[in-house]
Write a structure and sequence with these properties.
Number of strands: 5
Order of helices and strands: EHEHHEHHEHHEH
CATH class of the domain at 19-160 and 214-238: Alpha Beta
Helix content: 40-55%
Oligomer: single chain
Structural class: alpha/beta
Distance between the termini: 28 Å
Strand content: 5-15%
Shape: globular
Largest sheet: 5 strands, parallel
Strand order of the largest sheet: 2-3-1-4-5
Length: 244
């Protein structure tokens, strides 16, 4: 059943920007005049497709954009990829690897882009990282402190797609399933297909918990790509016009 929880798009002005926690030193928040727009969702949710189309649309309408995503850090992305291939990372090590990846991009890409007035389109943000860690039993207060460096985005859209659809889409695209995205490290099932379904159901539950805290917008991701993109464009247009 689809989540009935919906929320309005919260649009803080540059002068009202805030960190989720302790932030990072040397950042003058009122000078960050750009926008952070986040699209969240599991593997197979169509998240990356939507981001690509949004980049094309925004740049086509004269908005300078920067795209960021998980494991895109010049500092640790290659090392993280290699470490994951061994399937032996502890939950804490995995968490800190991703936190480092995010922190590097945040300080060296996101903040400078915001200062230059760009729109930063995030192919996932801290919410996926927190959700993954919550499912793996990490302490929620510790996670909030870990990601207290993050700036509250101008809009967050979570593409909600049921696990049975996610697995079919993922198999159709990659002809296989990823060890970590299937939660195989959790011992949910010896069968990767079954583990994927169980893991994504747990992730969906974690996102419901995160939505209750961070009040992001839930989007029905089971619809055609064009319908979803039209809804996102409408909401982003209102955001940029200051009408949300």
């Amino acid at each position: 059943m689809k989540s009935a929880v919906k929320s309005r798009v919260v649009v803080p002005q540059a002068s009202n920007r805030r960190f989720y926690g302790h932030g990072i030193s040397g950042v003058d928040l009122p000078t960050l005049t750009g926008k952070i727009i986040v699209v969240e969702g599991g593997d197979g949710s169509g998240r990356s497709t939507q981001i690509t189309q949004l980049v094309d649309w925004l740049e086509g309408t004269g908005h300078a954009t920067v795209r960021v995503g998980l494991k895109h850090s010049a500092l640790v992305s290659e090392e993280l990829e290699k470490a994951q291939q061994g399937n032996i990372l502890s939950h804490t090590t995995l968490s800190l690897f991703y936190a480092t990846d995010f922190a590097d991009q945040f300080e060296n890409t996101i903040v400078p882009a915001l200062k230059a007035g760009f729109i930063v389109l995030c192919d996932r943000y801290i919410y996926t990282l927190m959700g993954r860690d919550m499912v793996r039993g990490m302490d929620e207060a510790w996670l909030k402190n870990l990601y207290g460096i993050a700036i509250e985005p101008d809009a967050v859209f979570y593409l909600e797609v049921q696990p049975d659809q996610l697995v079919q889409r993922t198999l159709a695209k990659y002809a296989g399933l990823d060890y970590w995205e299937s939660g195989m490290d959790l011992g949910l099932s010896r069968d990767m297909y079954d583990s994927f379904l169980k893991y994504q159901a747990l992730m969906q539950k974690a996102f419901k918990r995160l939505q209750s805290i961070y009040r992001f917008t839930v989007i029905d991701g089971d619809r055609p790509v064009e319908a979803i993109n039209a809804e996102l464009q409408k909401k982003i247009t209102a955001l940029l016009a200051g009408k949300s």
